[in-house]
Amino acid sequence: MSTKPETDNRMEKIVSLCKRRGIIFQSSEIYGGIGGFWDYGPLGTELKRNLRDTWWRAMTREREDIVGLDATIIMHPAVWKASGHVDTFADLMRECTITNKRVRADHVEAQTGSIIRFTGARAVLSEGTQGWHLDRTLTVLMKQGEHIESFRKRVRQLIAQNAGTSAGKPEEIELLGEERIEVVENSVDYHPESGGLLNEARPFNLMLKTYIGPTATEDDVAYLRPETAQAIFAQFRNVCDSSRVKVPFGIAQIGKAFRNEVTPKNFTFRSREFEQMELEFFIKPDEAVKLIHGKVATWSDASDLSEPKPDWGWEMWHRYWVAQRTGYYASIGLGSEVLDYYWQSREDLAHYARACVDILFKFPFGTDELEGIAARGSFDLTQHQNHSGKQLEYFDEELKAACDAMSAEQKASFIEETFSQRTNPKASREEITSTCEKLFKGLYIPHVIEPSAGLDRLALAILTSSFDEEVVTDIKGKSETRTVLRFHPRIAPIKVGVFPLLKNKPELVAKAREVVAMLRPHMNVFYDETGAIGRRYRRQDEVGTPFGVTIDFETFGEAFPELKDTVTIRERDSMDQKRIPISELLPFLLGKIL
Ligand code: GAP
Q: Which residue of 1, 2, 313, 566 has the lowest C-beta tally within 10 Å?
């Protein structure tokens, strides 16, 4: 029998379980940790590896049209100039004029209170001895309900900690020229923690910098990649030239990305070092589809997404990838009850994107982005072609053949039609004509659909959706809370626990070891002989092991010969147990975990 206990503090419980059972640790914890960086322990490493493998399998091995790439984290800095990251990959930040602490301009909470201004402050070190003198205006918000004396104490502390001196304790600081200026309501001009006046918003680039070579001058600056995608664009030519790929096709990559996030938060959700799983799927531009097929299938006239069709335009491909990714999430246990979708509005879209859908997950701290699926047009390859001077156009034989069969009049009217239907109003007639002339030769820059997911975010989504606590009552009426991670067997770090009923019976231990040796080449197995069998089950429930196998005296067929060479298999979620021949164990488990 089971009931649901109160499951508040869900995130705290998950974070604590992750540490206790070796799933996720704070990076450099023995030195106090470092904000926005996390390490995966023995079980977290397995979980992440399994997730990575499911993605890789779904995106490459199970498909004919996607190949892989494993590029470096540091690339030529020109890549980031071309991609726009050097100039525009920034958050708008505001800085507290007292503590210099930064806050994202769009994350400032509205506050109500009185604005108090001081003309400065000075520190008196000991009787009669004057210490430093702070000669600048300090404007601070005294929160509604805050007592003036505790407010002054707080300001003295802020100054002592941040005014650039080690001299003087807070009590020894004297605030000068106090004046109450005004009362403000719902103001976003004061730092949410200190109450200090915020300065004007300024862009703060999120890329982490490093230096290549020993001189470490500004000429040697390089960046840790903020996304894995750009390497795919930069290697597009090489992949085309070296592999037998034909548009439409994709290049997939999994790897580390780095962002100097201003406010890393919600455990691993927003980290500074994280892993991305990205696909750049290259498709024919709609104009090429039209030249080949005479029309472009759009969502309004063809809504069957099960199999790609040759006449699909970008809209159908975009929707196809949303459906594919949704199917992937379902295959690892994240169904429609935990997912949501946000179709970005025209105003939300980046200037190069035609459409973008965020797949959202219902985290305990709120519904937020798990993956973004963007239709990026030809923006990235065009940028890299322009900046590198290298041809990144693709030659499409099918397109060339279709155009060769067209008359000069048909081509002229195609140019006319393309110009009149252009989506970019700034595109001149010359530009459109030149693009069309290229198309007639079979040449174009492919367009891109990009499903981009975060591996750490996915691991967090899986952890939070799998975490469960239930009160279980045994046959003697004794109740206890069972913590269980209900991982899909495919992604569980340990697939099966193997337990001899008693550790002091050598024949049980030997048989259990035999079972372990049989299973180990195929899956991650955990052998445990210590403690009562119920305890051993609970320990595995807590880390999401889907199956437990117990070797007992029946395995030897002593009382019931028909049970010889059978074991008990227990299923984690239902806690049901059944006997199964040892010879059927491997196929049974493989059927569940593959
Ligand atoms: N190439 C497109 C791109 O990078 P993005 O929306 O910035 O798009 C894609 O990132 C995914 O990477 C996000 O949906 C998220 O899962 C993950 N991600 C982005 N920033 C992250 C961070 N600071 N910490 C953890 N995951 C992050």
A: 1
